[in-house]
User: Fold these one by one.
Assistant:
Number 1:
Amino acid sequence: MMTRREGPAKVTGAARYSADMRLPGTLYARILRSPHPHARIAGIDASRAAALPGVRAVLSSANSPAIGWHESSRLFDSTLRYIGDEVAAIAADTPELAEDAARLIEVRYEPLAFDLDGERRKPKLEQRGDIARGLREADVVLEAEYRTQTALHNALEPHGCTALWQGDRLTVYESTQGIFAVRNEVAEKLGLAAEHVRLITEHMGGGFGAKQIAWKHTVIAALLAQRTGRPVQLMLERTAENLASGNRNATRQKLRLAAKRDGTLTAIDVRIDLEQGAYSVGGEDSDVIGTYLTLYRCANVRAEQTALATHLGPAVAFRAPGYAEGNFALESAIDELAERLDMDAIDLRLRNYTTADQREGKSFTSPESLRRCIARTAQAIEWQRKRPGLGFAAHDWAAGGGWPPAQARVEFRSGKARVIVGVQDIGTGSRTALAQIAAEALAIPCDAVEVELGDTAPGLYGPTSAGSATLATLGPAIHEAARAAKAEGSAVAERRDNPKDRSIRTCGAQAVELSVERDTGEVIVKRVVAAHDSGRIVNPLLHASQVIGGITQALGYALSEERIVDARLGEVLNANLEEYKIPTLADIPEIINVSESMPDTEANPTGAKGCGEPPIIPTAAAIANAIHSATGLRIRELPITRDKLINGVR
C-alpha cells in the first residue's frame, strides 16, 4: 500500500506551514478587533501604539485604502457588525510587541442596537410536483422541527500568511484551499494584475471549507508589508480564528414527510432558516435543501431555505455545507416515519430508492452504488440482529469534480517524470494520489514520479480544494497529460467537462452502535460502520483516513460541539479549545470502513470521485437514531448533550 509522500516531512517537522516562514527582516502583525456586536467608530487614536519602539506600521479606517469588502463594507470599516470585526492592525518586530501595541490603540465606540435573531433575506425555493396532492394521498404525515447548532471549524492550523513585496510584485505564503482563487481576489483588492501576485501553499493543517476564499488578513498583511518594505507575517490566534474566519451556520428545519401505508413517500415539504452572520463572505452557500431534493424518490417536493443576517461572525463553507445539517433532519425523520409505519428503517429507505437525480432530471452514472453501500453497512453492523442502541443513516453528495479549468503538465527530467499542477494539498494526501495516477498512465513505478503543487507561479490553473473535487478534477487531466507525454516527451492537458446527460454523485451509509448511561446522560459510542461510494479508491490508506477523520469530526457535531453566545452581550463565550468541545482520542470509537472500490468510468477516465466530505454527513443522524433505539427518546436538536438526555429521561 502506498503511504503518504509527505508523511516523513510532517512527523519530523521538516514540512513548512505558513507560520514556519522565517524570511530576513520579518515583522509580525496583530489585529485589534471590535468588542461590540454592533457599533460605529467615532474616533481612533493610534499615536501611542505607533510611538512604541519596535512598532513599524499601524493601519485602521483612518489611514487605510478604501478597499471594498463583503457586500457593503470595507477592509477597515467605520461600522462594526460583530464582536471580532477588524478595527486596526499593527506590524512590529515581535508578535508580543504587536499585541502590546494593539492594546494602546484608543478607540471611541458608539454602540448600536444588535440583532441575534436575524433579519430575513431573500428565500431560495425549489419544488416539483404538487405538495397538496401528495399530502392528500398520504396515509401518514410526520410533522417535526429539527435544529442544528453553529459549529466552528477549528482546523489544527489557523488562518494566516506571510507577505513580501519584490518591486511591484507580491508573494504570499498562505494557508489556503485555493491558491488561484485567493491570488485572484487579493490582486483585485490591491488593484494588481493577477500575474503580479504569487500564492504558495507548501503544506496546510486543515481548512474544512473555511480557507477556500480570501479573508481580510491576507490583504492587511500585504498592505503592512508594502508600507514597511519588509515581510509581514500575520497568523490568527485561536480566539480570532473562532470569531472571524467562518462557521457552520445554525439551522431550524420545519419538515413534513408524507407516505402511504407501504412506505412510498408522497410528499416532502421543508422550510429552513439558516444563520448567515453579519456578512455574506462568499463560499458559504450552504445547500441545506439539496438532500431533500435528491436522496429519495418522491414526486412532490417543496424545499425552501432563508438566510438570517445577524450581528455574529459570518458563516462559510464547512465540510459538506448544508448536507450535514439537512441530513440530520431528513434521516432522523425517515426513522420516525418508519416507526409510525411499523417498518424496518432500512426497508423504508430502499422502498424509496432512486436511480436518477430528480433535481437535474438525469440518471446517475452509478445508480446502484448507494444500494451496495446500504447492504455492506447493514451486513457489517449485523442489522438483522435487532438490539437496543443501533442506528442507521444514508446520504448523498456531489463530488464529481470537473470544475474548469484544471490543467496539468507532465514532463521528463533527470530520469523521472515530473507532474506540475496548480492545486494545493490541504492535508488529504493529494501529492500521493496524483503521483499514483500519473505512474499508472506512464506504466512506471510511483517512486519515479515527482509532483509539484501549491504554487501559482507555473501558471497552470488549478481549482479550489472544495466539494471533495480535487482528485476527480485533477486526476483526469494528469492521466491525459501523462499519456500524451509518453509520445511527446512533455504535455499539458486540461480537464474535460463532465458528461452532460448523466449526473455524478457520491453517496454512502453509516450505522452506529452505542449505549446511554441513564443516570449521567453519557453517550458511549461503541462502533461506527461506514460504506461510501468514492468511485475508484486510488489509495485505500488515504481513503480510510478521510473516513476516520470525517466520522471523528461528525462525533463532535453530533454530541459536543456548539458555539455558545451570551444573548445579552452578543459575545461568543467559547471561542477557544478549552470550552469548545471537539472530540479527543478518548472519545473516538472503533471505526470500521467497509467501503469498496466502485470505479465510475462514466464520471471520468480515472473512475475516481471525492471522499473528503461524505463521511461527515450521515453520522449525526445515525447517532440520533441509535439514541432513540437505546432510550426511546427522540432528540431533534444538535448537539445531543447530556442535559438533553437527562431532562428527556426525567
Note: The mean pLDDT is 96.
Number 2:
Amino acid sequence: MNEPLVRGAGLTATIAYAAAIAWLYTTQPQTVAQVTGGLTAAIGTYRIDQPSFDDGLRFFRAGQYPEARAAFARADTAERDARTQFYVAYSFYREGWGRLYSDDALFGKGLAAADKAIALAPGGRLVVEDADLQMHSADELRAELQRGLTRDASDFNPLRVFRPRK
C-alpha cells in the first residue's frame, strides 16, 4: 500500500478521534441517549417523540407536573429540544410556586432547565406561543424563577398572598 495514503488515513482518523473527545468534553453528556441525541442534533436529524410530548402537555395543563416532566423526559431523552426544556422549567415553576413562599429546590431545578432551554434556542432567544401560559419567553421564566430564589424585604409584605401565579 502507498505510504502517504496510509499516513493520510491515520492523520484523518486521529483528527476525527480528537474532535470526538473535544465534543464529549465540552457537552459532557450524562447518558448514552444524550450522546446519540447530541450527535443527531449536530447533523440536524434530532426529533422529539411527539406523542410523549403531547402527553406531557396534557399532564401540564391538568396540573400534574411530575407526570408532565416524566412525559417530557420521554419525549426529549437527549435533552436537546429547547421548547421541551422550557415546559420542564415551567412545570418546576408551577409546582414550586406558593402564595406564602416558593420551593427553592424546585425553583433551582427550574432555573437550570430554563438555562438549558436558553442555551439550546437559536440565538439564545426562545418564545413559546401557548395561550395557556402567562410567560411566553424563556427569559421571562428565568427572571421569575430567579425572583423566587432571592430573599428581600418584599418577601415579608402581607399583600404578597394576593399576587397571581403566572
Note: DSSP finds seven helices and no strands in the chain.
Number 3:
Amino acid sequence: MLGTRLHPLMAVIRSSELRRVQIGFLLSTIAEWASWLALVVYAYGRGGAGEAGVVGFVLSAPGILVVPALSVLGDRLPRARVLLGSDIVIALAFGAAAALLAWDQVIGAYLAAIVATLFVGLIRPLLGALLPEVATGPDELTAANVVTGIVEGAGSLLGPLIAGVLLVVSGAPGVLVACAVGLAIAAVAIWPVAARPTDPRGAEAEVATSMTVRDQFRDLAAGAVAIGRDARLLGGVVLIAAIFGLLGAVEVFIVLIALDLLGLDEGAAGFLTAVSGIGAVVGSAASIVLVGRDRLGLALVTATAVFGLSVAVLGLATQPLSVALVLVVTGLGWSFGYVAATTLTQRLAGDDVMTRVFGLSEAVQTFAEALGALVVPVLVIALGANGAILIAGLSLAILALATLPIYLRSERADPELLRDVRVLRAVPMFEPLSAPVIERLAAGAVRLTVAEGTPIVREGEPGDRFYVLVAGSAAVIIGGREARLLDPGDVFGEIALLRDVPRTATVRAVTMTELLALDREPFLEALTGQARSRRLAGDVAAGRLAADAAAEGS
C-alpha cells in the first residue's frame, strides 16, 4: 500500500519541471517566513506587541484586494511565465526594502516590503493552478501537493531559522538581502519551465483586452462564484483561511512567549518558529496517505482541529521544552491541513477559474492572517497572554467541527459513483474539469460489459458515445486491419463527437471488457466550458487521426 503511494511521489521527484517549480516555491517560502519574522521583530523592538501587530497587518492587508485581481493573469496567460515575473518583482522589492531599512527610511522600507508581499501572495495561487498542468495524473498531482506541503514546512523551518541567525548577525536589513537573493535564484530555477512552448490561454488573453468593465468585473468575480456554488469548496476555503488566521496570531504569540514569558532573546523567537517548521515537514510528509484517496474532507477537518487544539495547549505550556514540543504538533496539524485543502481545491475548481479560486482563497487567508496578528494585542489585554492563546486555539477547533456535516454528507456518496469519478478524473482531457462537472459526468455515465469478440463501435456508423476502457482489452481496426490495442485507462470515440463525423474505426473487444460510456451531449457540454480540456481533446483526436492514417498507409 505504501509502495503504491510512494510511486507517484518518486515520479514527482524525477520530473525536471516539477523539481524546478518546487525549488522556486521553497525559496519564496523561506523568504516569506524570514522577511515577515524580521519585520515583526524589528517592529516589536520599536514599539512592542502593538506595533508588531500593526506592522503584520499593514504588510498583509493590501494583498487582500490586489491578489485576486492579479490572479486573473494566471487564468489568461501562461502560468509559469506569470510566476517568473512575480519572482523577479519580489527580488527587486526585497532588495529595495533592505536598502531603505539600512538607511533608516522605515516607511519606505515598509512600502517596498508591501510590494514584495503582494507578489508573494500570488505565488501560491499560481503554484496551485500550475501543478495540474505539469503533473501527469491525479495521483501524481496529489503527490506534488505532498511535496508542496513538505516544501511549505521546510520553508517555515528554514525561513525563521535563517532569520534568527541573520537578526543576530546583521539585523533586519541582512535578512531582506538574503530574501532578495533567494527570489533571484527562484527566477533562474523557473526560467526553463516558463520558456517552454505553450499556448494554453493566448487567445483568451486577447479576448480579455476587449472586455467591457462589466465583463472584467464578472471575470474577477468568477472565482467567488465557483466557490459559492460548492459547499465543499467553500468549507475548504473557510478552514484554510482560519488555519492561516491562527498562524498569524501564533507568529506574534511566539515572539511574545519568547521575549516576555520565557525571557529569551530575539534570536530565540526565530528558533521557536523554526521548531513549528519541523512539525510542518513531518505533517506534510505524512500527507502522502492522501494519495489515491477520493475523500479529503474528513482529513482537512481533522487536521484543522488538531492544529487548533495544539495551539490551545500552547497556552498552558510554561517551559521552553514543552513550548517546543507543542509547536511541533502545531506544525504537523496546519501542514497536513494545507495539503488536504490544496488537493481538495484542485479537484473541485475548474482549470478555467482555478488561479482565481486560489487567488481569492489566498486573499482571504492573507486577511485572516493579518487579522490574527492584529487581534493579538486585544486578546492579550482582555485575557492575558496564556488566556489569549488558549481561546484562539479552541475557537479554530470549534469551527472545524462546525464544518464536519458538509463533508460527512458528501462522503456518504455511492461507492460506485466515486469509482466512476476516479476513472474519469484519470482521463487527461478531463483533468482540467472541476469536480462538480466530473461528478455530473460520472452520474450520467453507463457501465457496459462487452463479451470477447464483440464490436463496441463500427467504422462508418454515426457516433453517439465516448468510451473509457475500465478493464480488459480492445482492438482498433481500420479498413479491416488491426491498428493498435487499447488497455485499461485508454479512451476512444471522441473523434466522431468532436468533429461530428462518422466513426473512423471499428473497436472490438479482445477479452471480456468493461467500459464507462458517456453520451454525446454531456461529453460535449463538459468540454465546451473548459478551454484546456477542448485543446487536450483536440490534440488527442488530431494525434490519433495522424497515427491511424500512418498505420493504414503502411
Note: The first helix runs from residue 2 to 14.
